Queue: 2 jobs
Job 1
Amino acid sequence: MAEITIDGIAKSFGATRALEQIDLSVADGEFVALLGPSGCGKTTLLRIIAGLESATSGRIVIGGRDLTEVPTRRRGLAMVFQNYAVFPHMTVYENVGFGLRMQGADEARVKAQVGKAAELLHITPYLDRYPAKLSGGQRQRVAVARALAVEPPVLLMDEPLYNLDALLRLEMRAELKAVLREAKTTTIYVTHDQTEAMGLADRIAVMHGGRIEQIDRPTAVYERPATTFVGGFVGSPPMNFLPVSVANARLELAGSSLPAPRASGDLLMGIRAEDLMPVAAGEGLPFDIAVVEPLGAHDLVTGRSGATLLRVAAPAGSGHKPGTRIGLRPDPKRLVWMDPASGRALPAQ
Amino acid sequence: MKRAQSRALPYLLLGPSLVFLAVIFLLPLVQTIALSFSEGGVASLGNYRRMVSDLNFGLALRNTFLLVLVVVPIQLALALGLSVMIEKIGRGRDLVLWVWTIPLGVSDLAAGLVWLAILQDRGYLNSALYGLGLVDGPTAWLTYETPGTLFLGVVLAEIWRATAIVLVILVAGLQLIPKEYREAAEVFGARPWTIFRRITLPLLKPSIQTALILRTVLAFEVFAVVYAIGGTNFPVLVGEAYTWQNANQNTGVAAAYAMLIVVISLAATAIYLRVLRVPAEQQP
């Protein structure tokens, strides 16, 4: 069984701290996405798990085995790289069979496993070709097949869809999910693309500045971000944060009274664009529309409520006009409360 | 009008360098060919006959080939090892590369003289050996009576002098290989030696080809180092051309030697181009 325990991993490059005390447990067969902007340390963490980078402190335990001091080649992992790293001087067959050959598998096993992996990723017709003759999407499939052919207990993926165009990325995403579900491999997947993380992962670890800000199921990360950073980074458009002040543990907002998690003081109220209902001017929060972007599924309306910039997902064709004022009614069940000083979520009342 | 002009432009821009090549390279080449095939203004194979029947010819041919066959593989192996080592150096990498390439800045005659100073009767080597009690006094290593040590001396000097050019080409080639290939191989369980043999070496083939062509062609033209260390005790092809041109005042036979070297170099290049070819479909 291959559950992964990352225990207090820290990494410094000279004086710069790339990772600060990362703790993370991944269950056997689970798919965890490391999500974050570039420079957040997600790739460094993945490379430390692979052994391609050494941690300054901490331990990596996979399947009960402490791998911290074990060289990469003996960790028994598989990895898919951002630029595929499919060997140009080997045929697709030899590429897919590379890991098996390194394990000293006999020809019959290589053939069987390569055949199976190629079937799974629909690259059987290309087995005799060289990678230069393949498109980006096909090379990506070869890279995934090479990783799955060894039936690894743990699969590491570093932005594997990064170099594909948008349509192909969508296609590969759905296919990857199906393939990996079938393979039942414990997977750690690095990405900066929140839709990718949301769509693929069982759990998402959102990273920022060398720390894990939140780790939870995709819907929980989306609905109940642990920090303002997570709320702003996950979801498109980012979560709205409205500064409010409470008194007597209640917030008087837009003509209604809501229970607040603190007795008094300033708070940030976080709310998703689709949880702000447009209502007639004079009702709810006053909202001055600046821009209307019809996106097909809905209209993205950007404007200001007082000094705060808000984005609202209004029903498509609702006919809002820039320069007009409407009202917004937040869905009280979908609010999150943040401490404005720490940017951390406060438990709801 | 405009289109005709833009079509001619590349050729116009190439023109000066073509003229330069024709005057400096092509014309002398044609003249040398003509010289080698004529005697007293009449077309003949006499120069080639005289070259082949000369006592030193077989010796020079043998020595030159022997040198190339011994020196070039050692240089390639050394440069491969050194370039992989350089890759692993973090800080001070440029300094190490710089020091290792210093011999490139030394002219080959000067390099030959340096090694002569080390290897001659009263040279540094003998002083050291005498100090260690290994020889009784000045010992000759570089005479026609000691062909083995003479050859060894020339080989040493050539390796010291010209390995760096192979190294520089291979270091540049290694930097062109994305590190992900080696990392992927490592993740999938390859040992360092396997990675070198199955990943690095095949991907380095274009650079190895360039380095080998350059080094082999220059190795066939070896002269100054040999002349400085062995004088005429170790005849080589270019040395014979020099002797026929200057000592024997026979430009025709010298031209025949020059043509022979050209043909050998071209043949070596053709072999490398063929053997170390990377098919288009296997290029990254």
Job 2
Amino acid sequence: MQVKTTILSLPTEEFVHPGTRACTGCGLAIAYRVGLKALGKDTMLVVPPSCLTVLQGLFPVASTKLPCLNVTFASTAAAATGILATLKTQGNSHTTVAAWAGDGGTSDIGLQALSGAAERGDNFIYFCYDNEGYMNTGAQRSGTTPIGAITANTPFKGKLQQKKDVPAIMAAHKLSYVAACSAAYPLDLYDKIKNCLHLPGTKYFHIHIPCPPGWGYDPRYGIKIGRLAVETGYYDLYEIVNGEFKLTAASEKLVEKRKLVPVHEYFRTQSRFRLLTDSQIADIQQKIDEKWAGYYNKDE
Amino acid sequence: MHIIENGNAAAALGVKLCRASVIAAYPITPQTPLTEKLSEYVERGDMKAEYIPVESEHSALAVCIAASSAGARVFTATSANGLLYMHEQVQWASGARLPIVMCVVNRAVGAPWNIWNDQQDSISQRDTGWIQIYCADHQQIIDTVIKAYWIAEKVSIPIMVCYDGYILSHTFMPFDLPDQEKVDAFLPPFKPDYALRPEEPANLNTVTLPDVRMDVHGELAHSYMEIRYLLQEELRTTLAVAADAEKRFAEIFGRCGDPYIESYRCDDADHVAIGLGSLTYQLRVSVDALRKEGIKVGVMGVRFYRPFPDEAIASALKGKKTIIVFEKALSYGYEGALTSDLKSALYEHLAGTGNLPSVQNFIVGIGGREIRTDDLTQMFRTATLGRVSREPTWIGLKL
């Protein structure tokens, strides 16, 4: 049975010190803080170079209170395997190993190692925090940058290609657990982590992370924008437990409501989408509607 | 106990005796029989270890880096392009000061593809901050693996145990298989000063700035430059640690040698050939042949290549007329890397003494080209008569 956590029942113990080096309004700061609360004290972390490396601070000061190994860009999942292997030799089956990587570190350079670990079924949780670009290096396009978004290296036309569907790739590995979450719905993230801790093998989390400098909006609107992504049906919250797909939280409620906010409402909040034409938006809207028609059908 | 086995098996047996607890590897010829052997030991229960069949060499070393950071004694092995694919991780392992032991079964690197032996792979990793030891026979392979763990764990610096693909990895030779009790007496369980664990959280390998910063107690902490300086300093002191290892090894196993170099008929020699690995044993045949002709020659194998035992080598070569360096790799655009290192050591220790020998460089066996002993003898003889060429001379080239 699923446990529904509320803001009042969230544990008060913090594993991220206040005053991190994250940008003002960073969505990752929320997801990481809440995520670590769900993972708990008996956790070891693996982090490749990414915004999280910056958030965690500069030597010799660190903002994370859990043991954390910083590793090379392409090796996140393999490093998690390595820590897990040592724990096994020590007879330790209680400590959780969790990797936190960005979308570039996951969908592009880290995909091979992640696929390898998932195929081996190594028992750890992999979090991809998806701010939809190489934000740490100045907002270049990544495999998960959405179509139409202006980035530092798609400056005049916006990205011409689709966003890579990493959760689907991971689901194809027949994992025990795949989840899509958002920093704008931290309690959904918290519950999903709690609910998958006991499951075997590799668990994959994809977290949508609003990014003020990368997406081009006033930092105070991060949560609103993250929610709009869900309310427009553009980004869905779901989990796939042993192959069973299920929408969760706000996305689940949208199925009942049968009413999506038009996607242009989402695009107009961010300067990265300013080149999108009406026909491009109509095209995207049509794809969203088709996807949701599928969800409605399943519901009936 | 004396057994007859191939070089890869010698390495695998060494790793087993050392009780490595996490092994990660990706297949590449000619390393494969070594890691296959280890997977056999683990699956059969002869060895209590986690064997991770990773999806790339980059991940093989990633697993070792993480497992070692968490306190395990780890092992991996590779060859050629596998080693090159690891390169980023190779640098990371030494920067993170992890006592990883890795066998490099030497093979040519592409392009074009070539699976045969030369030493371009490990030579290309010379400047990565790893210790590099070269073996000349099977006994040295198994003994070096055992010593390597002891040295690596003493100084917290990773070690490459290098041996020639096929020539050593796939040939069978008799060697003494050390007793487990003796290995246990020589090599205590791995207990690092700090291992990553939930009870004592730390954030390892975080971002450093160009200058030092204060920690939370207001004390100045080392920064990148200090950390890198200490790696260099401690690599240099590793030479003394290697001598200790040799001494301790001799006490327990009853066999020993010079920790850095292996000389054959060098004492009264006027001309000395130098090289890395099995080639130096082949050169012994040339030495014997030339000695019969009355030419006073010897051969020296460099066992410890990084840190470079410059003083030991220079003092052993003092007063020699000619040094002939035979190499299976080179620093493209100049000459053999060992040749340059040797010249530098001779200049440092012998310049101005009137004892500076002349140095010649021969390149052999690139991409597994057959090294005929007759050719070695012939070139060796010619080199004793005077300089053949300012540039490295390639032996066996068929242009």
